[in-house]
């Protein structure tokens, strides 16, 4: 599939109030329902992620193609493959939509390329985070603030769609 046929080249992330996405190799919160959007968007499509993020998840995600970017390891299977660069990952993805799922380096590299970012703003302040969402110019995007969910910790779905 060429880029012209692509419905979305998107990025999906959940970040804290202080822009943390990871701590000690993990996502530093566990909020029921917070991952549901990820599943809904990516099912039937391709997900691109860095080697550490894939190892944290520990298995290919059912119902979608996982493309892992790594120079050091290879993961191959029915629903998972490995490439050396983001460009190779995008070339390999033959689904309608492709979603970049982190971590930091892939988000940073993909940011100028994506046409949409699904950012879940988690209303929590994380001390000691070690992985952050990259800085970007919000003026490049039309922002739609969606619904807020959650009990103890609230989170808000936000969509950043690149201005034409
Ligand atoms: N909150 C969220 O939405 C979210 C989403 C994703 C991840 N996270 C968190 O973020 C942390 C992991 O992120 P991370 O940034 O440390 O690691 P990562 O991006 O998942 O993995 C880094 C590794 O991926 C490979 N890689 C990444 N970008 C590459 C590129 N452009 N070209 C070639 N290889 C590339 C390299 O693998 P090799 O070393 O094998 O070459 C690199 O060492 C964890 O804490 C995770 O829980 C949070």
Any key phrases for this structure?
10 strands; alpha/beta; eight-stranded mixed β-sheet; Dihydrofolate Reductase, subunit A; 164 residues; binds NADP nicotinamide-adenine-dinucleotide phosphate; two-stranded antiparallel sheet
What CATH architecture do you see?
Answer: 3-Layer(aba) Sandwich
CATH homologous superfamily? Answer: Dihydrofolate Reductase, subunit A
Percentage of residues in strands:
25-35%
Could you give the order of the helices and strands? Answer: EEHEHEEHEHEEEE
The CATH topology name reads Dihydrofolate Reductase, subunit A
Radius of gyration from the alpha-carbon trace, in angstroms: 15 Å
Question: What report would you give on this structure?
Answer:
The structure is a single chain. This protein has a single domain, classed as Dihydrofolate Reductase, subunit A (3-Layer(aba) Sandwich). Helices cover 17% and strands 34% of the residues. The chain is built from 4 helices and 10 strands, in the order E-E-H-E-H-E-E-H-E-H-E-E-E-E. The strands form 2 sheets. The protein has an 8-stranded mixed β-sheet with strand order 5-4-3-6-1-7-10-9. Strands 2-8 form a two-stranded antiparallel ribbon. A hairpin with a 5-residue loop joins strand 9 (141-149) and strand 10. The longest helix has 7 residues, at 36-42. It is globular and about 40 Å long. It binds NADP nicotinamide-adenine-dinucleotide phosphate. NADP nicotinamide-adenine-dinucleotide phosphate (NAP) is lined by residues 13-14, 21-22, 25-27, 49-53, 56, 69-73, 85-86, 101-106, 109, 131.
